[in-house]
Amino acid sequence: MPDISHLAIDSLPLAFGIIMAIIGLVFYTQALPGKFWQRFYAVLPGIVLCCFIPATLNSLGVFADGIGSKIYGFTATYLLPASLLLMTLSMDVPKILGLGWKAIAMFFAASIAIIISGPISLGIAKWVSPEMFTDDTLWRGFSAVAGSWIGGAANQAAMKELFGVSDDLFGMMILVDTTNASLWLLAILVMAKHSAKIDKFLRADSSSIDKVIAAVESYERDHARPA
Question: Percentage of residues in the chain with pLDDT exceeding 90?
Fold first, then answer.
């Protein structure tokens, strides 16, 4: 078999541009209204493809050895702080406070539950299968999952950087995260059809949330780009 290692991409701008083009193409097709793409991404979430396609190209030798660490260093140094800043700037604090103390307390309670559930599940798994914890790194992956559920993909990437999660473990945790998120989304969509009955049964007052949803929909209509 001929040696094609000299053809591998070793330029940081070129490799980064290819990966960004792949991610852009995935999110572009995911937003298309066609039934094919809607069904396709219902089975295979876009975030999985964003990780799987570059990883496959790397395994096939498209990228030179060491280019991954260069891309990671570049994104962690420049893109990650910018993403966290933009995520923070998009917060509407007055509307959040307008939800009332019960909604805010529920948010913090859910965040605390996610943080606590990680160590509990790790403890149960260690009791059932202690051989999984020989290298003492699995907890780092759970920190990335918890970060994703609390603050989204940008927070997940921040946890990867903060706790030094390996690329292999991070890839597995992304798969776990997207699988759980897809199952939970399915449950939410099923329950959403009966939201009025559920609110009535729980005696829940969702008027403040309905106002926020209406405000968000109005903002999207006012700032939507023409097709």
Answer: 6
